[in-house]
């Protein structure tokens, strides 16, 4: 399915008070909306992912997977600030007729959600049967479920939090510092900051994976190696891989966006915001996750009425939410079956 673009031609007001004169939202849809519009699955993607969820979340999303185009109308939008077609720092500023680069306004998780709402309106989507996201995607899903509690029927969040932690912000700031040490980041060109971005990605991987994962996947077979280690090669490879598909300006801004996440901002408290969520909620944590430790997911589940919490073991740490698809499919399918059965039983009782 090819990517589509929705252009919002009015001014888009950001939480900061700044405005974008127009907003482009690039997105994918899979399947068809059914007659009563009750089969919508909306995916909120993570930091460097994109709207083609069938590509990066295989095993959960695919022709024969749990979320497939035969049963569901699946929507995934590239987030505000992303370099995959939605308005971002490389987009042209309507005022200057030049790319924004570092003049791009700061954006928040709430801004991303407001953009999702505009796309949902454009697609004539009233209610969302399943809203799902992990990491930064989970932050978006939580914010949306607070701001439009009646719209979301089932909420599934993985490896995420209700307020970004000091630990997570420190990781992000360290990555931004790496980008900022690359003098080309200030040259106002699309390839600016690439060396810094490569370094930032290498740093990020250490928070996405685990000691045991590196020990298992990158250990040397020989005791004689004194240079050119597998783990060194892996860090370089992953950094270069991101540079080929992303840009330093989007990465810099999006990490700041993640830092801004706080469900309690402008509300009574984080706890009260979570308590306002009405969706049937499934929260999944990963035991080995050091970036979003499981106490953050337990906190979410504790404060959402009747939320379910499940925890999985994974060698991969935070990235387990992308890689442990068989374990996730078992938990998520069971949750959705039970909620569907409860819905049917409730309808019969009313009848």
From TrEMBL:
Gene3D superfamilies, per the entry: alpha/beta hydrolase
GO cellular component, one term: cytoplasm
Quaternary assembly: Homodimer.
PANTHER family membership: HOMOSERINE O-ACETYLTRANSFERASE
Function, in words: Transfers an acetyl group from acetyl-CoA to L-homoserine, forming acetyl-L-homoserine.
Pfam families: Abhydrolase_1 (PF00561)
Protein name, as recorded: Homoserine O-acetyltransferase
Organism ancestry: Bacteria, Pseudomonadati, Bacteroidota, Sphingobacteriia, Sphingobacteriales
């Amino acid at each position: 399915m090819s990517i589509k673009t929705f252009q919002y031609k009015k001014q888009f007001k950001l939480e900061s008070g700044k405005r974008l004169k127009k907003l482009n939202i690039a997105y994918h849809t899979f399947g068809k909306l059914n007659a009563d519009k009750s089969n919508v699955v909306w995916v909120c993607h993570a930091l460097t992912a994109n709207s083609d969820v069938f590509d990066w979340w295989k095993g959960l999303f695919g022709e024969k997977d749990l979320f497939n185009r035969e049963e569901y109308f699946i929507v995934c939008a590239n987030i505000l600030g992303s370099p995959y077609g939605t308005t971002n720092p490389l987009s042209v500023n309507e005022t200057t007729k030049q790319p924004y680069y570092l003049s791009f306004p700061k954006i928040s998780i709430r801004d991303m959600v407001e953009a999702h709402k505009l796309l949902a309106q454009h697609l004539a989507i009233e209610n969302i049967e399943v809203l799902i996201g992990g990491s930064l995607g989970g932050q978006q899903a939580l914010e949306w479920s607070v701001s439009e509690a009646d719209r979301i029927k089932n909420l599934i969040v993985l490896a995420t939090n209700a307020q970004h932690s000091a630990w997570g912000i420190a990781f992000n700031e360290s990555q931004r510092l790496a980008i900022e040490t690359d003098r080309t980041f200030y040259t106002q060109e699309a390839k600016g900051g690439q060396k810094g971005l490569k370094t930032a990605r290498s740093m990020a991987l250490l928070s996405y994976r685990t000691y045991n994962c590196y020990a298992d996947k990158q250990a040397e077979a020989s005791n004689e190696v004194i240079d050119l280690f597998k783990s060194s090669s892996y860090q370089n490879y992953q950094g270069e891989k991101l540079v080929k598909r992303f840009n330093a300006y989007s990465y810099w801004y999006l990490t700041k966006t993640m830092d801004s996440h706080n469900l309690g901002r402008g509300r009574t408290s984080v706890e009260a915001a979570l308590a306002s969520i009405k969706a049937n909620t499934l929260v999944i944590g990963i035991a080995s996750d050091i970036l979003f430790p499981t106490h953050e997911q337990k906190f979410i589940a504790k404060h959402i009425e009747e939320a379910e919490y499940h925890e999985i073991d994974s060698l991969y740490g935070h990235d387990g939410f992308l890689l442990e698809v068989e374990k996730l499919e078992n938990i998520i399918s069971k949750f959705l079956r039970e909620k569907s059965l409860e819905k049917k039983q409730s309808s019969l009782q009313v009848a």
